[in-house]
Amino acid sequence: MIDKLIRDTAWHRHTTILLLSLVVVAAAVVVVVVVVVVVVVVVVVVVLVVVVVVVVVVVVVVVVVVVVVVVVVVVVVVVVVVVVVVVVVVIVVVV
């Protein structure tokens, strides 16, 4: 009877240790999965922020270049028109 009780107690102790080990392993797996998910989310957010910043910078540069080109073209056209008008007026006045 005592021998059986000792065996039962030892079996329960081993079973408890095994179950606790499984719980610890499961908790470790959950922690690792949570850390991996957090790292992936942070990396995705950082990449998205970098992409948005690059797109905004490119759009601003393109807009500035277009505005500069338009201003240069308008100035050139105005100068050409003024020169032509002055030449025509000089020709008309002289002739």
From TrEMBL:
<dbReference type="GO" id="GO:0016020">
    <property type="term" value="C:membrane"/>
</dbReference>
<feature type="transmembrane region" description="Helical">
    <location>
        <begin position="60"/>
        <end position="93"/>
    </location>
</feature>
<feature type="domain" description="ABC transmembrane type-1">
    <location>
        <begin position="18"/>
        <end position="95"/>
    </location>
</feature>
<dbReference type="GO" id="GO:0055085">
    <property type="term" value="P:transmembrane transport"/>
</dbReference>
<keyword id="KW-0812">Transmembrane</keyword>
<keyword id="KW-0472">Membrane</keyword>
<dbReference type="InterPro" id="IPR000515">
    <property type="entry name" value="MetI-like"/>
</dbReference>
<feature type="transmembrane region" description="Helical">
    <location>
        <begin position="21"/>
        <end position="54"/>
    </location>
</feature>
<keyword id="KW-1133">Transmembrane helix</keyword>
<protein>
    <recommendedName>
        <fullName>ABC transmembrane type-1 domain-containing protein</fullName>
    </recommendedName>
</protein>
